[in-house]
Write a structure and sequence with these properties.
There is one protein chain. The chain has helices spanning about 15-25, 25-35, 45-65, 70-85, 100-120, 140-150, 155-180. The protein is mainly α. It binds protoporphyrin IX containing FE.
Amino acid sequence: MKDFVDAPDLLRDCNLRDALRSATAGPHRRLDAQLSRLDLTSSDDRRAFCEVQRRGFTRLGAACGWDAAEAATALRDTLKALDEDLGPQPLPGPGLDLPLHGDAVAYLLLGSQLGTAVLRRTLPEPPTRGFFALTGDRVAWRAFCLRLGAQPDDSAESRRVLRDAIRAFSIFEHETRAVLSAPVDGAP
Ligand code: HEM
């Protein structure tokens, strides 16, 4: 299949796909730094990492009405895999977050799969089930990049996607702080 990077004629100069990367570079760096405190060779820390993913993507899914564009299937698969790691959780009630644009949620879900692929290589053994065994939906990511690469970054809707992607990173930062500052089981 032709990759979007091989089709520059389809890409606009100031496109929404590139704008998303620039607008969220700072929030991504902060989140990466917080999560990198976890040692993924330890099963407790892997569990904490999965807990952040489940809390974050449950909130993001609810906030977009579970309509995450190209990432709809990956979002469902991710939460199912996290239930395998952590045990099932009751279905969430109505979310408390303001609505998020589905493209913002798709960006975080499909983009974060690129980072997870890097992290997977640091695990003590290749995972066979659960979150770290998911290989990532490259077809969906490519389709998403192609679609957003053809959109201007300055329309009213694009500005909403950019603002919501930054808000979605804040939701993840909030959940990361909550999980990492929670007392460990059995601690006084
Ligand atoms: C320790 C934690 C993390 C690390 C080390 C990390 C690392 C990375 C790396 C290396 C990439 C680029 C991969 C490539 O281009 O092949 C990437 C991309 C990305 N990551 Fe993360 N990541 C982490 C956590 C997260 C989380 C929790 C989210 C959001 C929920 C996230 C969202 C994204 C997005 C949206 C991209 C795509 C950037 C773009 O090309 O526009 N990452 N990450």
